[in-house]
Amino acid sequence: MESERTEPSLAELLEEISGLRDLFQRRLLEDKVKGRQLDELSKQLEGSRGGFGEQLLGPVFRSVLLVVDRIRSLVPPEGDQALESIADELLEILRRQGVRAVPEESSFDPRLHEAVRSEPVDGHAHGDVLDVLRPGYLLGAQLLRPAQVVVASSKVDQPR
């Protein structure tokens, strides 16, 4: 009879297995939640690092862009390969650091463009970008400087 008392009953074993199964499922669920939280924290950390770098480097990159503008303004109409090469190299350095040109959009976007002038033109909708006078640049999602553009305006009938 003593051997019967030391061996657990089938009901006790099933209850213990059920308890272990519940514990296992709770731990799996906790692991999934922790995994999602770690992923979210990693994304937040990466975002804050990127934003911090953009804040620190933005002014430096804007200054380099002004140097590029100055170099390009010195290029005579017939061209100067050396000056153009220096400007291109500086832009390549910025590109490797994540700076990219504002995409040339067909219509004016006040978040990316600065309208310097508007011209009434046939064949273009009001707000179409006609010309880019000075390119704009982005560092990640941060606008370093807007593109200076000429936009189309509606032709207004002139009084006779």
Task: Describe this structure as you would to a colleague.
The chain has 2 domains: 1-97, no CATH class; 100-160, Nucleotide Exchange Factor Grpe, Chain A, domain 2. It has 3 helices and 6 strands, in the order αααββββββ. The protein has helices at 2-6, 10-74, 81-96; strands spanning 99-101, 113-120, 129-134, 137-139, 142-145, 147-153. The strands form 2 sheets. A 3-stranded antiparallel beta sheet has the order 1-4-5. Helix 2 packs antiparallel against helix 3 (81-96). Belongs to the GrpE family. One of its GO terms (molecular function) is unfolded protein binding.
Topology diagram in text:
Layout: H1 2-6, H2 10-74, H3 81-96, E1 99-101, E2 113-120, E3 129-134, E4 137-139, E5 142-145, E6 147-153
Parallel strand pairs: 2-6
Antiparallel strand pairs: 1-4, 3-6, 4-5
Keywords: Chaperone, Cytoplasm, Stress response
GO molecular function: adenyl-nucleotide exchange factor activity; protein homodimerization activity; protein-folding chaperone binding; unfolded protein binding
Main location: cytoplasm
Largest sheet: 3 strands, antiparallel
Mean residue pLDDT: 87
Count of distinct structural domains = 2
The backbone outline, from C-alpha atoms, is elongated
Main-sheet strand order equals: 1-4-5
SSE order, one letter for each helix or strand: HHHEEEEEE
Q: What ranges have pLDDT less than 50 throughout 5 or more consecutive residues?
A: none
Q: Summarize the amount of helix as a percent range.
A: 40-55%
- Rg, rounded, reads 32 Å
Number of helices: 3
Our measurement of the CA-to-CA distance between the termini, rounded to an integer number of angstroms, reads: 121 Å
- By DSSP, the count of extended strands is 6
The fraction of residues assigned to DSSP E strands is 15-25%
- Secondary structure class reads alpha+beta
